[in-house]
Specification:
Length: 340
């Protein structure tokens, strides 16, 4: 079914905290869908206010390797799961002067996207411009290798800043093209945190990563385009910085950062698309514990004006009964703030 919040006017009001308090929710179940397709079909019918996404990227069904447009070699384990970079084209920075990055003109079929966006906007739906997951910070680690990149950060080598300019300039041009097509929002992803800390000091993050985020996201904001940023891991130390760069919708993990911390740092300042725990409560808890957690998320971070959406990734190892409870609880609490 089509939900009201899939229309741009409604979603924009949620982002800007001018809505009726509705809490949209979605569940990504592609990697577990084939365990029991009928279960997910019935679950979607039972919970019509939650979007259950079951479409799979067919090219991730089987184990394989792939070299991307940047020259990074990926290993995909199969089972529709994401991959890991195993080959780093700039492991040796002495070859940087001979390295040729991809052309922003080849990022997507821009002519096709222009036509698609025109139709989307005619229907009043949300016109999105997408960047790849791991578009900047992670891309730097993909190109160099994690350990090498961390040494670059520590040494602040001139080659590091040259590489930053190469990657940042690419995405600046891609975003500029999306804006030129009239998108409403840019969707970006970059896992900036580890389990309980940043991979570098906050001071280093502000020097190495933040300037490029600011340059790209300020381009969006100056054009009236919203900025959605997904980021896994602990990010409490830099949430205010992310807001400063121009992020208007932040997709952080809940338990890793703590609901009270997210309330203090982000509630009422930007829209929160809360990533529901998939490490503790949902794979190992009881249905009652799952329901209590999702209720607490909504009550802690929601408001009568909006500013909160929920998202959950269902992955192998999580019992179907628990996945079902996540969806049912999202259905239960989606209108908890309405009318309050």
């Amino acid at each position: 079914m089509e939900h009201p919040w899939q229309k741009w006017d409604c979603y924009r009001d949620i982002i800007n905290m001018k809505s009726n308090g509705i809490v949209p929710a979605s569940v990504y179940a592609a990697t577990v869908y084939e365990q029991d397709p009928d279960f997910f079909k019935e679950l979607q019918e039972e919970c019509p206010h939650v979007t259950v996404e079951t479409g799979c990227k067919e090219n991730r069904r089987h184990e394989h390797t792939h070299t991307d447009d940047w020259g990074c070699v990926w290993h995909f384990p199969g089972g529709f799961l994401d991959g890991q970079v195993t080959g780093h084209p700039l492991e040796d920075l002495s070859v940087l002067s001979r390295y040729t990055p991809p052309d922003p003109a080849d990022h997507t079929n821009w002519e096709k996207e222009a036509e698609s966006i025109r139709h989307i906007k005619e229907e009043g739906c949300i016109a999105r411009g997408s960047l790849e997951h791991g578009f900047f910070y992670l891309r730097l680690t993909y190109l160099r290798g994690f350990n090498n990149f961390m040494m670059d950060v520590a040494e602040e080598s001139s080659e590091l800043f040259e590489l930053i300019d190469i990657v940042g300039s690419y995405w600046y041009e891609v975003v500029n093209r999306w804006i030129g097509l009239g998108v409403d929002i840019i969707i970006a992803g970059d896992d900036l945190g580890h389990q309980d800390a940043l991979p570098m000091s906050p001071a280093s993050w502000r020097k190495i990563i933040k300037p490029t985020f600011s340059k790209i996201f300020s381009l969006c904001r100056e054009s009236g385009v919203e900025v959605y940023l997904h980021t896994d891991g602990y990010i409490n130390d830099i949430v205010p910085d992310l807001i400063e760069t121009g992020v208007t919708v932040l997709n952080p993990q809940d338990l890793v950062n703590g609901l009270d911390n997210l309330k203090r740092l982000a509630k009422g300042k930007i829209c929160i698309d809360l990533d529901i725990d998939r490490q503790d409560i949902t794979p190992f808890g009881t249905p009652d514990e799952i329901d209590a957690h999702i209720g607490n998320c909504v009550k802690t971070l929601g408001s009568p004006d909006g500013g909160l959406t929920l998202i959950f990734g269902a992955y192998p190892g999580t019992p179907l009964v628990n996945i079902g409870q996540v969806v049912r609880s999202m259905e239960t609490y989606h209108d908890w703030w309405v009318g309050k």
